[in-house]
Amino acid sequence: MTAAPPVQVQGLTKRYGETLAVDGVDLIVRPGEVYGFLGPNGAGKTTTLRILTGLIAPTSGRVEVLGGSPGQAQVLARTGSMIESPAFYPYLSGLDNLRLLAEYAEVPRTRVREVLELVDLAGRAKDRFSTYSLGMKQRLGVAAALLKDPELVILDEPTNGLDPAGMRDMRRLIRELGSEGRTVVLSSHLLGEVQQVCDRVGIINGGRMVAEHDVEELRGQQELVIRARPLESAHSVLREVLGAEAVHLYDDTVRAKVAPDRAAELNRLLVEAGIAVSELRSTERALEDVFFELTTEEKTNAG
């Protein structure tokens, strides 16, 4: 039998007074995958994750985590999380902070050393938390999330404050967590991060889910990048030929979602229309392109 999804959300909304922070979000996280929750700051990512961990209650909608309701003791026992900035006792060492958490969670003390090694903090374990850099504090937060050896790990912007080397190490750790059979839900506003570590991604903007796909599926097939003048005329001609959904403007180029073997045909049409084509090449769309395309469309539709 197929295992039930660790996270199932239907019609989730969260309202703060007149502000609708989350607006009818649906998402399903599959067992053993690394799921990227992607969106700009203020899109509703952290609010959604706070609901999944039972920190706040939804206004409406159905939320199921590991077969139960968020915040239930049996669900929390199988979940590790880091939401927003991790908070610890500033004058205790990283080691003593984790020992204290281990006692609360009834976790063997031997596990403390294991998670410190995992996040590369063993060498600074006896230093006070107040002396840690922002990146080190972030890594200690991830260590705390892993203390219970959880089935489900929920991380809110885990690379926040990390230098490039630290970001690389964190990505490696997240990939390892996924390969060990755990399910990881990762929020981020960094497109490259999500593209490198996630199996699937949900894009949220303005509290609404605008796309949810496998990363490769969301990026789609190859497309043609066309640099031409006047750009608006090239955009108009290609929309007439290919349809509005297949053509979009991105920076100073037109992107066309068509097979590369149509390049000569489209070049001829543009030239016959009096448009000067300076570049026409095939490329695979980056997640960044998809993200800006989707969020731009969302703003246009909302307006």
How is this structure best described in words?
This protein has 303 residues and is an alpha/beta fold. The chain is built from 11 helices and 13 strands. It starts with 6 loop residues before the first strand and ends with a helix. Helices cover 37% and strands 28% of the residues. It has 2 domains: 7-218, Rossmann fold; 221-284, Alpha-Beta Plaits (2-Layer Sandwich). Helix 3 packs across helix 4. The chain has a 6-stranded mixed beta sheet with strand order 5-6-7-3-8-9, with helices on both faces. A 4-stranded antiparallel beta sheet has the order 11-12-10-13, with helices on one face. The protein is elongated and about 75 Å long. The model has no long low-confidence stretch (mean pLDDT 87). It holds the Pfam family ABC_tran. Residues 7-231 form the ABC transporter domain.
Give the arrangement of secondary structure elements.
Elements: E1 7-16, E2 19-29, E3 34-38, H1 45-52, E4 60-65, H2 73-76, E5 79-82, H3 94-104, H4 110-118, H5 134-146, E6 152-156, H6 164-179, E7 183-188, H7 191-197, E8 200-205, E9 208-214, H8 215-219, E10 222-229, H9 231-242, E11 247-250, E12 253-256, H10 263-272, E13 276-284, H11 287-302
Helix pairs in contact: 3-4, 4-5
Helix content: 25-40%
List unreliable stretches of 5+ residues: none
CATH superfamily of the largest domain: P-loop containing nucleotide triphosphate hydrolases
- Bin the strand percentage: 25-35%
Query: So how many helices?
Result: 11
Alpha-beta content class: alpha/beta
| The CATH class of the largest domain | Alpha Beta
Q: What value does the Rg take, in angstroms?
A: 23 Å
GO molecular function: ATP binding; ATP hydrolysis activity
Protein name: ABC transporter related protein
Family: Belongs to the ABC transporter superfamily.
InterPro entries: AAA+_ATPase (IPR003593), ABC_transporter-like_ATP-bd (IPR003439), ABC_transporter-like_CS (IPR017871), P-loop_NTPase (IPR027417)
